[in-house]
Amino acid sequence: MFRAAALLAFSFLAVSYGQQVGTLTAETHPTLSIQQCTGAGSCQTQSRAVVLDSNWRWLHTTSGSTNCYTGNEWDASLCPDPATCASNCALDGADYSGTYGITTSGNALTLKFVTNGPYSTNIGSRVYLMESESAYQMFNLKNQEFTFDIDMSQLPCGLNGALYFSQMEADGGMSKFSTNAAGAKYGTGYCDSQCPHDIKFINGEANVAGWEPSPNDQNAGKGQYGSCCAEMDIWEANSMAAAFTPHPCTVKEPTRCEGNDCGDDDNRYGGVCDKDGCDFNSFRMGDQTFLGPGKTVDTNSKFTVVTQFVTADNSTSGALTEIRRLYVQNGQVIQNSKVNIPGMDASLDSITEDFCTSQKTVFGDTNSFQDKGGLAAMGDAFQAGMVLVMSIWDDHEAKMLWLDSNYPLDKDASEPGVARGTCATTSGEPTDVESQSPNAQVTFSNIKFGPIGSTF
Description:
GO molecular function: cellulose 1,4-beta-cellobiosidase activity
Strand content: 25-35%
Organism: Pleurotus ostreatus (Oyster mushroom)
Protein name: Glucanase
Number of domains: 1
Distance between the termini: 28 Å
EC number: 3.2.1.-
CATH superfamily: Glycoside hydrolase, family 7, domain
CATH topology: 1,4-Beta-D-Glucan Cellobiohydrolase I, Chain A
Keywords: Carbohydrate metabolism, Cellulose degradation, Glycosidase, Hydrolase, Polysaccharide degradation, Signal
C-alpha cells in the first residue's frame, strides 16, 4: 500500500543494478513446485522456479567488474545518461542462499530478512514466479481462487512478508525495449501501483536522470521516472496484522511515469494509479480479536490463506465484482471477519464496490479506488495477465505503520480507520528492526490455484 519501491536496505561490496547480462556469476533459479487445480481434490503439480528482482543485483561494467552503482549513487562516468548507462552496465547472476537468504524446498519458499554473506549484509528481497527460464508465469484469477500456506510467526512489527500480483510483462519488457538484454531471467520489468522511483532501470534505460540519494537509506534513491501498473495485494502482513488490497490503475500495461502522472507528494490522487487501494484489514475494520498471536487466526503457527475472485457471470472473462477471503488452520475453515464499524453494514466481510464506497465514506478517505476503475479495472489487469511477487521488506517511508499500527499519525486512534494493528507508533524504524530482528523470516508454501472451491 505504502510500499517503499526498492524494498531494500542493502549493503554489498560491489552492488549495482542494470539490464545487460554479466558472466561473472551463474544465474540458477531456485526451483519451486506449485499446483493447478481443476476441481476439488484434483490438482496437478507443476515444476516452477523463482527469480530475484534486478534491483538487488550486482551491476558492473560489461567488460569488467567495476561498479556502475555504489551505495546510493551512480558512477557518473559510466552512467552520464540513461542510454549510455544501459550500454555500459551489466546485471549478473545471484547467489540466492548465501547472499540473499532465499531458499526453496519442494513447494516452500523461505525469505530471510537479514543475511550476512562473506562480502555483504543483505536486507530483504523480492522474487517472481517463473514459468520458464526466460518468462514469468502469468495469472488470470477471474472466477478463480488462489491459495497458499503462510508461516509468519517470526515476522514482528515493522516487517512485511508480502505475496501479491503486479501487471508486469511476461518477459520483463525484453521484447519491447532493445536495451533490455536481461529480461525476466534476471528479474527485470518491475512495476506496482506506487509508481516507484527507486527502480534502477525502467523501459530498458537507467533511471539516472534527476537521481537523488535517499536521506535515510544508504542504498536507495529516487530517479526522475516511476514505474506504474495495477497491483493486487493478496497478502501484506506480519504476525500482528494483515491486509488484502486491490490497487487499480488507468494505464493498461507497465508504464514509465513522470511528473504528475506518478502521483507523487501532494498529487497522490492525481496520478495514474490508486495508491491507497481498497483494503480489508480485520483490525482496521473493527475486529481486533481476529488475527494475531493466539487469536482466531493464530499467527504463532502456519495457516492457509484462500482468496476468491468472483465475477458477475461466474466466468473467467466476466467483470470482477467481489474478492472473498477464507482461512484454514488446524483443519478448520475460518470465515473472514465481519465489519464492525459504526455507519457500515455489519454483514460486510469481503471487498465489493459497496464495501469500498462505504469504507471510504466512513473513514473520510479519498475514493481513488473508484476513480481509477475499481474492481472492474482490477479484473481487466488479471485478464491481461499478472505476475506473482513474494517479498520481505521493512519500510523507510512510513515504518509499516499503515499496516500494523495507528496511521496517519496526525489523526486520533479513536477515529474510524486509523487503528490498523497493535504495534506501537514508535515501532518499525528500519535501523531498529534490522538490528533487533535479524533472524526474522517468512515462508510461503503449498501454492495452489484453480476454480473456486478447488484448492482447499
